[in-house]
Design a protein that fits this description.
Distance between the termini: 33 Å
Helix content: 10-25%
Number of domains: 1
Shape: elongated
Oligomer: single chain
Strand order of the largest sheet: 1-2
């Protein structure tokens, strides 16, 4: 299953875990995705959307 936002395209990013001894090991930062019902072109659509996009859409609706 793809961990990608269907609105903005945000996907996993990479970085490092840094231990107390400063050893760097690779890790992935996953986007915070939720399944939500959003309106696209006047239709209600079920999509996997990051929480930043949900927040922005809620702000625009006000």
């Amino acid at each position: 299953m793809s961990q990608r936002c269907e609105l903005c395209g945000k996907g996993p990013m990479t970085g490092h875990n840094v231990s107390h001894s400063k050893v760097h090991t690779l890790r992935r930062f996953m986007p915070n995705l939720h399944v939500a019902h959003i309106t696209v072109k006047g239709k209600l659509v079920r999509a996997k959307v990051c929480t930043r996009c949900l927040r922005t859409r809620a702000k625009a609706a006000r």
